[in-house]
Amino acid sequence: MMLKTAMSYLLVAASVLILGWGNVAFAGNTGGLDYERALWHPLHFKPAIDEATNEQCLSCHQEILDRKVREQSPAGVKAEEALAWYQTLHTYEGPQMTFHQRHLTGPLARQLMNMKCNTCHQGENPREEAPIPPDPTNTTFTLRKQVNPEICLMCHGAHPFKVMGLPGPWPESRDNFQNNCLLCHAGIRTNRHQVNFLKADAIEEAAKKEGDVCYGCHGGRQWYRIAYPYPRHAWEGMSDEVPEWAVGRPTESNPRFRIQQGEAGK
Amino acid sequence: MAEQKEKDSSRIKEAVKRRKRETYTPVKPEMQLGFVHNNVDCIGCRACEMACKDKNGLPPGPRFRRVQYIEGGTYPDVFAYKVNMSCNHCAEPACLPTCPTGAIFKRKKDGIVDIDSTLCIGCRRCEAACPFGAPQFDPMENIVKKCNLCVDEIDAGRKPYCVMACMMRVLDIGPIDRIWDGGLETVAVGPHDEVVRQVKNMADIELTHPSIGFVAHSKGKVK
User: Fold this and answer.
1) Quick check: is B17 in a domain?
2) CATH number of the domain within which B85 lies
3) pLDDT value at position A148?
4) Is residue B2 part of a domain?
5) Which domain holds residue B159?
């Protein structure tokens, strides 16, 4: 019996070693694959993509960090003089970058985020051919390329001012609240930002200095017309009654984003 | 003169300050044009894609129109249908506010969302923001381009190239309200067909309210 258990431990250890080496070997070997083979590489699909490291992704896709925006548009608009609506928050600094750089290597990304390639990317091109049979509950695959917009929605959704009971949208209301989210949200708060792609402590610190930091991801960088239905983690002093707008919300983050033991505090 | 200049510059500064930290308010068009596509009768020949590439002079890579294949089932109960999208000229486009140079705009007249690629610096934000994959990156020029519903053809009173190229006549355009309520006279929609706004595996329409209607396949219907 003892021997059997020991054997199975050995087996596990051996497979971990082999797999580990496989990964290391992979990081250096992709150059040899032709485009079609690389496209259908298992790393581009579940479950392998969940374990993919940034190094593995970048070994083929380094250009996403190296690429630069044009210094000026074909008609001569200078990149350094351009600013999008949502880039007018104080938290936006530095020159125009590509969105990949803004999410991975930009100043705010370094300060507050801990994003990995597979935080957003959950598959490759073949998502244009939907999984079989088509299933709306399979939210990781949508009929578009590369990323499910529901992931973007977490930080690029609308500011739910009606849910909060504010008289108007935040740009109109903020002066009444001294542009300070913590005026109310020091007390009314769920277990915030405890996900593996954000630096929760750094966000709390930054929010104390400037409300625009909060607003940035909660309406200020709005792409979409709805707000993300964040999971409703219980907090101390939370009322037992669930308000109408929160009915049916999960109470835990998506398993993919939960902080694994040993990862906390990073 | 100097006084006037001073006055102007202070006014400009004030306006800039006011505009700071504002989110954008979408243009409300007088009439919204949109596509209608019959998922069932489309044979997936991609003639629309090629006509589009031809008209817009696109190199390999960017595809303004994308015919997406959905196939599945287990023999003998198998199925195949197509969901065909270009730009959905959304009521509240996500691409538009992401553009740092103001290259993307929505026409008041007919709600067409267009990108003036000569103003594009190639940051590819719009490409990321679009839930339907409409903006297409042109690696040769390092700029983003997209479907403009053949705005020149529209202004000339004709239909876009993709619609004209469709040999099955499953693709058409029209005022989107009439497409949705079934009032548009078009051969793309059969006499007993119902036009829906959402099909399976398509991003949530509440994100941007895309101006597109489908005749959905029985396996692609959303309850």
Assistant:
1) no
2) 3.30.70.20
3) 84
4) no
5) 27-220
Instruction: For B149-164, give one letter per residue: b (16+ CB within 10 A) or e.
Output: bbbebbeeeebbbbbe
Q: Is the pLDDT of residue B206 over 90?
A: yes
The pLDDT value recorded for residue B194 is 95
- Does B71 contact chain A (CB < 8 Å)? yes
Helices A2-29, A54-61: crossing angle, 10 deg rounding = 30
Q: Does B92 touch chain A (CB under 8 A)?
A: yes
Distance CA A155, CA B179 (A): 33
pLDDT of residue A172: 85
**A225 contacts B206? CB cut-off 8 A:** yes
Chain B residue whose CA is closest to A224: B207
CB B33 within 8 A of CB B149: yes
The pLDDT tens digits of the residues spanning B49-89 come to 999 999 999 998 899 999 988 877 778 888 889 999 999 99
Q: How far is A133 from chain B (nearest CA, A)?
A: 5
Q: Is A119 an interface residue toward B (CB < 8 Å)?
A: no
Nearest CA in chain B to A145: B133
- In chain B, the number of structural domains is 1
- A176 interfaces chain B, CB cutoff of 8 Å: no
B44 inside domain: yes
Contacts of A73 in chain B (CB under 8 A): 101, 103, 118-121, 143
Task: Taking the CA atoms of A152, A153, A157 and A161 in sequence, report the sign of the dihedral they define.
Answer: negative
CB B29 within 8 A of CB B109: yes
One-letter identity of residue A240: D
Domain-located, residue B5: no
pTM for the structure as a whole? 0.84
